[in-house]
Amino acid sequence: MAPWNDTEDRQLLLSVISVAQVNPNWEEVSKQMGKTKEAVRQRFAKLKKEAGEITANGAATDDGSAAPPATATPTPRKRKSKAKSKKATSDDDDDDEGTPLTKKTKKSQKVIKAEDEDEEEAEA
Predict the structure, then answer these.
(1) What stretch of H or E contains 26?
(2) Is 73 exposed, middle or buried (0-12, 13-18, 19+ CB in 10 A)?
(3) Which of 51, 67, 77, 112 has its CB surrounded by the most CB atoms within 10 Å?
(4) Looking at the record's lineage, which domain of life comes first (predicted)?
(5) Exposed, middle or buried: residue 46 (CB in 10 Å: 0-12, 13-18, 19+)?
(6) How far apart are CA 1 and CA 91, in angstroms?
């Protein structure tokens, strides 16, 4: 049987901790390590995640260290086309025809009022 390497040691400890469902006292651990409570907790979470990736991938280098994790490429979100949104609104009853879809600002109300006055003057 091959000798244990650092990755296997770490994986063993993390497996025992997860199976036993241990909830460490981070305050005590931080005192023993000489680090902050949050730093210890975050490092443990990172090690646990890395060990889970190694187990899931079964990937490790020849020296026993973890292979670099594969990064997933995020998929861009698809935008709704304007044609679809117009179609959806045209299918509705036209009871609200003439009703503005958005709230008008004071500036836009002034512009509309000025345009109405210009039209009235042109008609007179």
Answers:
(1) helix 26-33
(2) exposed
(3) 51
(4) Eukaryota
(5) exposed
(6) 72
